[in-house]
Amino acid sequence: MTDNTPAAPRPTNFLRQIIEADNAALKWGVGPDNRPRVHTRFPPEPNGYLHIGHAKSICLNSGLARDFAGAFNLRFDDTNPAKEEQEYVDAIIDDVRWLTNDYEGLRFGGVFYASNYFGQMYDWAVELIRKGRAYVCDLSPDQVSSMRGSVGVPAQSPFRDRPAEESLRLLEEMRAGKHPGGSHSLRARIDLASPNFVMRDPVMYRIVHEHHHNTGNAWCIYPMYDWAHCLEDSLEGITHSICTLEFRNNRPLYDWFIDAINEGRTEDGSGPWGKRIHHPQQIEFARLNLTYTVMSKRFLLQLVKDARVSGWDDPRMPTIRGLRRRGYTAHAIRAFCEDIGVTTQESVIDVTRLENAVRDHLNTTAPRTMAVLRPLKVTIENWPAGHTELLDFVINPEDPAAGTRKIPFTGTLYIERDDFMEAPPKKFFRLAPGQEVRLRWAYFITCTGVEKDASGNITGVRATYDPATRGGDAPLNPDGTPGRKVKGTIHWLSADHAVQAEVRLFDRLFLAEEPGKRTGNQLDDFNPDSLEVIRALVDPALAHATPGDTYQFERLGYFCADKDSAPGKPVFNRTVTLKDTWAKAQHAGG
RNA sequence: UGGGGUAUGGUGUAACGGUAGCACGACUGACUCUGACUCAGUUAGUCUAGGUUCAAAUCCUAGUACCCCAACCA
User: Fold this and answer.
1) Marked catalytic residue, from A45, A85, A284, A502
2) What is the pTM of this model?
3) Is ipTM beyond 0.95?
4) Is the shortest CB-to-strand distance from A488 to strand B under 7 Å?
5) For residue A338, which of A352, A354, A322, A327 has the smallest C-alpha distance?
6) Catalytic site residue from A200, A297, A324, A555
7) Per-residue pLDDT tens for A468-504?
8) Taking the CA of residue A290 as centre, how many other CA atoms within 13 Å lie in the half-sphere pointing to its CB?
9) Quick one: which of A166, A194, A407, A501 is 20 to 30 A from A532 by CA?
């Protein structure tokens, strides 16, 4: 049918360019399908919940795998039992699945754990000692620190020339639990005078007597990031090991460890050390920064602990779980990540782009409904008493296939307070004394009067309806054109049918574009009024909304039923408002 | 101070010695039974100073600004 239509040009970026070049040269060989091999991974440490920054990495890695017909692994970089927990493992798996499950064409390689490679890593460490590339150091962390040297001054270790046999014996003792934490470490023998501090005989193993969520008490020595990560990638056959910019300095070490293992090894496995191991390529990219958002796991944890938010899944949190609960879709997050691109330059993305991404997606998918956040009563004076009419309501104008449903109309309605003004400014197209508006999909009404209480507050308005406008269409002239134009259309609810609902309105968690930039303390920019809970009225069809159901409340925004909902007692989170040029103009005008 | 990085409209991102393009935003206007969506138009940029070249965002030199690195964290 449209086979000749050229594929839409994908946004190019430096990673795609690297992969395309690698594929052209068959740098990584071919996969089972005989296509150039591409294998990526997302390697979180299970020490917290995933946030939108991680989503960028997940989308990047899985997107590359998908587009180049490769595979994508989720792998836990669980090498530090002191900080990691099963709770985080479970949450991360769930979030990654949620984000990638409906990602068409993605080949998910599976869930892996660095801790499952501890045995192999240990064997390789022994090999490095034998090759003279590593040694056990008896310095304490404090001593290493004081002897690490400085710019131009080499580090020192009195143990680096210790005989291999002695190191081997000590490493075995370390593993056997014969030494307390901090008393020994295994270090790579590289260069104590390197201008790159990462290369000054980095620690490979440290002693940690802690329970590990996966390996239990099987180990009391744990590999450091640099020693572990390249091996994890190698073992899984990762081709492009994509990480963030701050690991740039670690790249020489990544390569050094693999090279050290491969030293003396051969392609066919002949020789004393066996076959060469796979050497992936580390590539760095700039992590995501968002305006008005703090991304550090440490800080997010603090917000949770201090109860400034209700938890990791608080809809105001930039966590995947928070975004999910707020009503963001995986599709929208992926579109956002695609939209912002990827480079090696640091940048700060405007959060409104994330908001635009959900609006875009929800606009096409969310069923429409009407809700009144701040009700004002309208009495239709010429409506037959006790009469109820069912009118057709278009479920989604963007999706005609969604069809229509019936909504009840009566002589007592609620409209939005903002949609009435007693003394309106120019270009106020809504309801005002003597002014006519359209009630969405219902009737034209004209305001005939205002009701006030003793202190002059408006308590309701009166209006008359035009029976000839049923359904919301103006009566036609003899020539078929609309008889009269009404500029304003407002939403409404039948007072007899509207259902009470709790609605949670969110504002940004921080008041400054870059929280903490001025004072150094992000809490100084914390927004104490980021949550507003109101009692609103919603369409009766929403009384039994189930958690996760997303709607557009027409003219207001997108709302998602919260898990706190109960049958007949729905709770909605406002995902994002609709754009509102009227409100914007009002603010601009003062 | 040593090493490693990065500089393109307001924001983000293309360009790979040959017309600085795209997206978002902003501003106009059109359309509209959501002041939404959609559509059209306008706006505005190569960090600085030299140099090479017919031609420089791109190459060279010297600066400037910002980020990362001296955890037995990742």
Assistant:
1) A45
2) 0.96
3) yes
4) yes
5) A354
6) A297
7) 999 999 988 877 777 889 999 999 999 999 999 999 9
8) 26
9) A407
